[in-house]
Amino acid sequence: PHPGNLSVDPATGALLFYDFGMMGEIVPGVREKLLDMFYGVYRKDTGAVIKALVDLGVIKPTGDSLTIKRAIGYFLDNLARQTERGETLAAIGEDLFAIATDQPFRFPATFTFVLRAFSTLEGIGKSLNPSYQFSEVAQPYATELLDLQDAQSQRALVVTQLQQQASELGAAAAAMPQRIARMDALLAAVESGEVKLRVRVLEAERAARRAGVMQAATMNVVGAMGFLNVGTMFALGGFEGPAALALGLAAVFGVLTLRGFQRVDRLDKFEKDIRG
């Protein structure tokens, strides 16, 4: 919003919007999932946070969900303090590499408006009051949500626990034969080769990635030197146009070579940080 499409009703004090081009609506289902994620972060419940993010479309379910769980759990455990980069990489460096490779995170378009609204409120507040803090303004509302959640949890705690215990005992007794049959079928499938265990070796993946980047950089070196030689020969022969083109391509391959070796250097530093 800007002064051209935003006003205030002098009678009621309500905000008036004249342009809805950059507006969106958070549907009730999304609001509920956002609250679930908020409560999960407050309780440091990694499973609840991941489930809410999957339901919101922020995380795409992948075959390797354990790395996402460990990474989110680490950040939840260290939410109240500022961790150093080396400490983070030493703790979950391999998980971060796996996440960067699988790319399970997405950013739904709906949240673009949410972030824009937060940044707009922060900017307006700062312009009116330099000491304005959005977190301080939002704290009473967050506290109200937490108090409501705690009150509801306390009222239903006894009944829920009794029902859950009875349900778990009954389900465990009824499912025992089926679980034994499943284990026997799984072992038989493994022995016959129908089921194959997949082991993910992250060190090998990082080495293969480094080798691929190094190979691309080497090919760029060859291209740069080749075009440099061709450009030099054209220049000595008096062919200015082809010489300029060849030397320009040599410069492009040279930049690609530099960027490739910089990526290799970053990968080596990342590997060193992981190993401590």
Verbal overview:
The chain is mainly α and 276 residues long. The protein has two domains: 6-151, no CATH class; 202-275. 75% of the residues lie in helices and 2% in strands. The chain has helices at 28-43, 46-56, 65-77, 85-102, 110-128, 134-192, 202-236, 240-275; strands spanning 6-8, 15-17. A hairpin with a 6-residue loop joins strand 1 (6-8) and strand 2. Helix 2 crosses helix 3, helix 3 (65-77) runs antiparallel to helix 4 (85-102) and helix 4 (85-102) crosses helix 8 (240-275).
Topology:
Layout: E1 6-8, E2 15-17, H1 28-43, H2 46-56, H3 65-77, H4 85-102, H5 110-128, H6 134-192, H7 202-236, H8 240-275
Antiparallel strand pairs: 1-2
Helix pairs in contact: 1-2, 2-3, 3-4, 4-8, 7-8
